[in-house]
Amino acid sequence: MPHNSQISLSIPLQMQLLHHLLSQPVWFLIFSSLGLFSLLKHVTHLIGFIFISFLRPPKCLKSYGSWALITGSTDGIGKAFAFQLAQQGLHLILVSRNPDKLSAVSHQIQATHPNTKVKIFPLDFTTSDLPSGIRKLETFLQGLDVGLLINNVGLSYQWAKYFHEVEEEAWMSLVRVNVEGTTRVTKAVLKGMVERKRGAIVNMGSGAATVIPSHPFYAVYAATKAYVDQLSRSLHVEYKSHGIDVQCQVPLYVATRMASRVAAIHEPTMFAPSAEEYARAAIKRIGYEARSMPYWGHALQWHLASAFPEFLVNLWRYSIGIRKRQRCR
Ligand SMILES: NC(=O)c1ccc[n+]([C@@H]2O[C@H](COP(=O)([O-])OP(=O)(O)OC[C@H]3O[C@@H](n4cnc5c(N)ncnc54)[C@H](OP(=O)(O)O)[C@@H]3O)[C@@H](O)[C@H]2O)c1
């Protein structure tokens, strides 16, 4: 009975509310509806962000296969990934240019994770004969159940430069490492994944190509990362039904040697985490979205940047570039 009386009370109230609403001017109704939709959109985004960042369980990375290959694994984000993946129980193939640094990282990993098998493969991605290096890598990988590929190796400019100032050798190296290297290693590893019907690939993109509308004075770097982003998102769709999860991760600044060089970031902060903190967040995202920004402080910056008009963000980036150029003189 109390239930019925509640209903009989609420119906006149609803009618009153409806009548009140209909008596409002049309402009008021339109703006209120738009406000309500916008609020709902923001609340939905916030709930999604909290779930993905803090509550969603990570995938079991060993289920993709027992080996992980990481390029650019002797420093920064790649090295941090290697330690995180060893902790997940994966065996590692470390690919980077410097054999001594590769051995040193391999020993460090085995000292802390004695059950992890580590293989090293020296390869300089700037070499003009990259195809032959990749063929050797393919041979090296034969018989290994490589379930996870972290295409991390990447180069940026040494200094902020106008496009016409960038030397041929510098931009060619950048294209070779960021575009050709990523594409060739993906192809080399993907074949085995298709045969085994399982695998995960993470390509390291950058907020420089996806968050900010432009990256003046670093144009070729941003353009190569836009390539990585689009390649990954297309492969994500192409290989989903083959059991292979392809993802582009888009970090903003991470306190590594690269960030210290291009942005004078020498210490981790809330908005520029250490490589270890980034990698801890990053491995929880593997296997999910086609494009992912794993670190919450980066996602917050992305959200703030998207609230500003494009021309203001462009002006801001331009002035940062000009200041960097002045500092370098
Ligand atoms: N740090 C950031 O703020 C940031 C932001 C967005 C995206 N990213 C992306 O994240 C990835 C990793 O960046 P990071 O900051 O960790 O870079 P990093 O600290 O400079 O480390 C780069 C790694 O790649 C290796 N490497 C460099 N050139 C190579 C070459 N020609 N051939 C083979 N290996 C080479 C380095 O080897 P050595 O140890 O021998 O030098 C090192 O292990 C890059 O793709 C970068 O574009 C970084």
From TrEMBL:
PROSITE patterns linked to this entry: ADH_SHORT
Keyword field: NADP, Oxidoreductase
CDD domains per UniProt: 17beta-HSD1_like_SDR_c (cd05356)
Protein name: Uncharacterized protein
GO MF terms, alphabetically ordered: ketoreductase activity
Family designation: Belongs to the short-chain dehydrogenases/reductases (SDR) family.
Compartmental location: Endoplasmic reticulum
Keyword Acetylation: no
Source species: Kalanchoe fedtschenkoi (Lavender scallops)
Main location: endoplasmic reticulum
Keyword ATP-binding found: no
GO cellular component: endoplasmic reticulum
SUPFAM superfamilies the UniProt entry points to: NAD(P)-binding Rossmann-fold domains
